[in-house]
Each structure stands twice: as structure tokens, then as C-alpha cells.
Amino acid sequence: MCRAHVGIWVLQWTGRVPLLLLLVLSMSQPVFAQVDITGLWRPMPRNQDGSGMTGDAAGVPLTPEGQWRGQSWSPEDFDTAEWVCRPHAFDYSLEGPLTAMRIWAEMDRPSQRVISYGAHLNQQEQETTIYMDGRPRPPANALHTWSGFSTGEWDGDVLVVTTTHLKETYIRRSGLMRSDQATVRTRWRRMGNYLQATSILYDPVNFAEPYMRTALMWINDPALVESPYPCEEATETAVPRGDVAHFLPGQSPLPGLNPNLADRFGTPYEARLGGPATTYPEYITRMKTLPRPATTAPAGAAEN
């Protein structure tokens, strides 16, 4: 090889090395944030989960335990003194009508990395913290709260949040419950000025299969005002001391659990009990073979 060729070869490789090092370094750096989800978010109109008759669980993959838990619920539960200002859990509050939301980031100043995200909802002023620093989960017997313990990681431009250590609470205001063993995985995705949340509930006690909710959308609104949500404990209904409002299995008077009442769609009673089979399109074939109640439910029997 002549001296001129050697010089060209050296120049070529010395020019490539910095570029090669730059490429390797950029690939080795973890991605800490793909998009900015912080800001003020106004909820868009949606159908709140559960728009049938009160007590209707069609399309919810309940286990027998989950069905019994729902059927034992009484509306008088809200009159129990301990539950007068019972908070809506953060994951349930995302579905309600008062879901104006503020999201902010806690930063590590030297590295400018996101340590955590915080979120505040107007519904009963629930707040949550989403840890982004890779900290381990607390032990199973650690304190369970309404918002639970949440960690987040990026999957492309989607923030995947996993929440554990939750208290038992309702997923519908008519008594369907998730247990304190549940895990909620929420996928947050920003699309321009819109923010979407897809919530997937895993509950080994009350749910036979994962339960997904996708109709959660917000639009960015820098002028959004979040109003306070005060709640003062007071005795609104006299409940005898020691009395726990409930119904025994098969004795609930809720219209959705009355086999003689029909909703506006004529849904068979069996389907209204819920269960994993009712979540699949194939169940429609079975519904066509089931008897339908003949008596139309009275006005006010529906949840919405």
C-alpha cells in the first residue's frame, strides 16, 4: 500500500471513530421521557362505565366471589358514618364526571431527569405519585391507600404506570368492587393536545380476567381552573350503631338483579350477573337463547 493510500485510510477511520463513539453512546443512554404529559387537562365527554340498570354487571369478568360481593352491596352503605366522605380511588376517579386533572413533574436538577410525576384530580381531590426512578415496590404487607403505589416506565411514547397496594373500593357506583389485591396498569398516551388513558385492572379475587377501560380522554387547557372539592363528615341518615348495610345473596332489591325486570334492551337476567363469558362477542349467540324479563323497569332504575 502506497503512502498516499495509507493517509487516506487513516483519515477515513479517524473521521469515523468519533461518529461511531457518538452512535454507541447515544444508544447506551436510557430514554427517560418521550413526551411531555404535564399540564392542565380538561376531560372530554364520555360514557361512564356502567350505563345499564343499577346492579347490572354485564360485560364485567367477575368471579363468583366478585358477583357475591356486588350482590351484597346496599345503597345505604353510603350512610355509614365511616363512609360519608369515603374517597374515590384515583383509578376510579379517572372515569367520573369531575376529572379535571393537573399533572406535574418532579425533576432531579443536576441530571434534569424526571424523578416522579404527580397528578391531582378534581373528583374528591385525589392525588397520586408515579415514581420514575426505578425504586423497588414496598413489601406486600405495606400500607394500602386509595391511590396505591405507582411506578412508571416509557414504552415508546406511552407512559406505562403500574399501581399496587390499593384499598378495596368500587369500580362502579352500584357496588361492583375490586379487592385490595388488585393491580392497575394504566397506559398514558399524548397525541398533540389530547391525552388518552387506557386502564387495565388485574384482580385475582374478584375478576376472572383483566378488565379494560379505554374511554378516558382529555384535552390540554392552559386556562383550566380546578375547583376545590370539600367534604365535611356529617350524619345524614340515622344508622343504628353496629349496623352494616348489606343484602344476602339472592335478596338484593337492585333493579339490575331483579330477574323479573327488563332494561331498555331486554337484556336477559343471566347476562346482567356478569362473568368472563359476557365480555366476548360470542356470548350474543347464547343471549338469543335466554329468556327475557317481560316487565319493563320503572323510570330511575338506570345508573345514568
Task: Please describe what this structure looks like.
- This protein is of the alpha+beta class.
- The chain contains 5 helices and 13 strands.
- The chain has a 9-stranded mixed beta barrel with strand order 1-2-3-4-5-6-9-10-11.
- It is globular, with a radius of gyration of 26 Å.
Keyword list:
304 residues; alpha+beta; Lipocalin; nine-stranded mixed beta barrel; two-stranded antiparallel sheet; 5 helices; 13 strands; globular
Number of strands: 13
Strand order of the largest sheet: 1-2-3-4-5-6-9-10-11
> How much strand content do the residues show?
25-35%
Uncertain segments of ≥5 residues (pLDDT<50)?
6-11, 19-33
Largest sheet: 9 strands, mixed, barrel
What is this entry, summarized?
The protein has 304 residues and is an alpha+beta fold.
Write the layout of secondary structure elements.
Elements: H1 3-28, E1 39-43, H2 64-71, H3 90-93, E2 101-108, E3 113-121, E4 127-131, E5 149-155, E6 158-164, E7 169-170, E8 177-178, E9 183-191, E10 194-202, E11 211-220, E12 261-262, H4 269-272, H5 283-287, E13 295-296
